[in-house]
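Q: What residues go here?
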């Protein structure tokens, strides 16, 4: 899991695959990037960004540790210097159990990582951006912001709340020139969906329903992320942009 901060400086909360694609896209657009991740030994994304000629650093944080989450924005700001202009919340976890058996421990962990950490990072970003009247906040929602899913009640609850949090913050901060939006991925071929990809029946059922005829890839989020992080989206706020190969349209 990572976040990245880009001067433009961006903090971004990332998950393997989509998070790395977002970080690379913002770096290619000229942003310095601070990766917020829990594994100090994993420097592959940071090193790839540096090869693009932009500054990239790592700040350690476990998104399940709220004490660490509460300090990570300020630690990233101190490391990078200047201002933070973009926050991307892309870190997340998944737990699957029938709802009658869903463990309380798993529920709490999913809500903490997928919702509470997003709220705390957005709040920290707002405290920094609102007085400066400049900022972009992008959180990653899900198709389950709109649908219930199967055997994932905690994830659906968290992602539904991310959509509403996006709207609530937009209502307060858009007048301060801080745009708050979200991206809702469809079915994407990443580690989080490993169990679905390995289930022939579910894989067929899902694949047949996607009008684009394929599962999404991390690279599909480069353009939407750069758009929402740039001046091109200056009058876009409170939106949940669905990137799903047409799934919701069907």
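A:
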């Amino acid at each position: 899991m990572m976040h990245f901060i880009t001067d433009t400086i961006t903090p971004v909360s990332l998950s393997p695959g989509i998070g790395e694609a977002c970080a690379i896209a913002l770096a290619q657009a000229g942003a310095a990037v601070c990766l917020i991740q829990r594994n100090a030994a994993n420097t592959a994304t940071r090193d790839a960004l540096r090869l693009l000629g932009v500054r990239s650093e790592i700040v350690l944080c476990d998104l399940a540790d709220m004490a660490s989450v509460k300090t990570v924005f300020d630690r990233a700001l101190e490391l990078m210097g200047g201002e933070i202009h973009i926050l991307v919340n892309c870190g997340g976890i998944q737990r699957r159990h029938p709802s009658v058996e869903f463990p309380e421990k798993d529920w709490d962990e999913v809500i903490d990582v997928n919702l509470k950490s997003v709220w705390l990072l957005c709040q920290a970003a707002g405290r920094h951006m609102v007085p400066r009247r400049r900022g972009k906040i992008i959180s990653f929602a899900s198709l389950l912001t709109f649908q219930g899913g199967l055997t994932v009640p905690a994830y659906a609850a968290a992602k539904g709340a991310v959509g509403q949090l996006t709207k609530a913050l937009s209502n307060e901060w858009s007048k301060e020139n801080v745009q708050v939006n979200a991206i809702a991925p469809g079915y994407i071929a990443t580690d989080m969906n490993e169990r679905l990809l390995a289930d022939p029946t579910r894989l067929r059922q899902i694949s047949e329903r996607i009008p684009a005829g394929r599962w999404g890839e991390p690279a599909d989020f480069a353009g939407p992320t750069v758009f929402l992080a740039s001046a091109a989206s200056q009058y876009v706020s409170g939106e949940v942009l669905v990137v799903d190969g047409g799934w919701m349209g069907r």
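A: Context that may help when evaluating the design: Residues 104-129 form the longest helix (26 residues). The beta strands are 2-5, 9-14, 32-37, 56-60, 86-89, 135-140, 178-185, 240-243.
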